[in-house]
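Data deposition worksheet. Section B asks for the primary sequence of the deposited chain exactly as it was used as input, without tags or linkers unless they were present during the calculation. Section C holds the resulting structure in token form. Section D is free text for depositor observations; keep each observation to a single sentence. Incomplete worksheets are returned to the depositor.
Section A, Depositor: J.P.
Section B:
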Amino acid sequence: MAKPSIPKGTRDFTPEEMAKRNYIFNTIRDVYHLFGFQQIETPAMEMLSTLMGKYGEEGDKLLFKILNSGDFLKDVNPNDLEEKNINRLASQLCEKGLRYDLTVPFARFVVMHRNEIAFPFKRYQIQPVWRADRPQKGRYREFFQCDADVVGSDSLLNEVELIQIMDEVFGRFAIRVAIKMNNRKILTGIAEIIGQPDKIVDITVAIDKLDKIGLDKVNEELRSKGISDSEIEQLRPIILLEGSNREKLATLKEVLAASETGMKGIEEMEFILNKIDKLQIKCQLDLDLTLARGLNYYTGAIFEVKALDVQIGSITGGGRYDNLTGVFGMPGVSGVGISFGADRIFDVLNQLELYPTDSLQTTQLIFVNFGEEEEGYCLGLLKQLRENGIRAEIYPEAAKMKKQMSYADSKKIPYVALVGANEMAEGKINLKNMATGEQQPVTVEELIKQLQ
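Section C:
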């Protein structure tokens, strides 16, 4: 019989791993609640008409499409079948697909529920997404996103609060990070100044790769897109701009003085920095002109978070976008949002061993099962312990002591309770500390106080 397997790019998670992941999700969820965000969920599958054309040509190829139920060949054009025309066949064979991200389903949600929600609408969503990508280290076909967005508001206070959220979350995780910030209007201004306003997408896609491929390769890519050497030379000092955030903005004010769009971006950046300065966040906040973010729907501030003590890609990203819902017939709804990369945060916390011991939510105490009479007595004690929030269990059968203690050890349960005839008569519990091997008789009240 063939050994069972799972699809490439997907993973099983053990109880210990799930405890760690839930610590991440619960921490992010708690911070979202602190800032007034409300949770929604959308279905794993959406209509393909909702998803197609929203992520560019490459994104469309990475959509997992779901075969129609029943006789899925009945409406297929025989010529397309014979010619193996994949694109045309897909549209005939599949009406639905797995969601690629949480943003497009959210846009669809806002349009469908516009009469039920109050604007500005602050939503968060923690759910898996699927991409038919080539699996590799740190890149999966199924992974979780932890999104928060504010839609229906142009106020830059939303950007300020999102920076505070990122600061608070990583402060709770004890991960040292740098929050990188830029503005797409500044990038547009730069494209205008060098005389290539129509090449804004090519320019931003290229300079976004500076960290990964270096300046020479970025310049090669720019040349391949029709940017001249003199224009590349104009870009160079802007891309490699150094100094404090304020010094960078002062230089940009001179360079972009002739660009109305660029100056608007600088004004927005100054507003955010002025507010953040008064809040004294713990994280490092850097104005980074090489930050462009791959997605072209960003129109204002953009963010990316890098861990300072681990070599890994960005662990959070986001930004301001206009007209989120326009593709679904509801134009003019601006929004701003961020997404925490739970899977990468999981890897960072593992590498740095930053999980608090109490975050793993393991059983705190297990009762040894000595037989039917003791078992009945212990069930009453268990009820009392659980009512006081103590995570406790009893071994389900009166097996050999070695087997029961081995079970407690394998589950990393810190305390074992031994209750035999003597303990029952005295109303005591013989409590064994698995780390030290020490045993002491305690009352149930003393036990609750010790474990709470």
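Section D:
The mean pLDDT is 91.
The longest strand covers residues 121-130.
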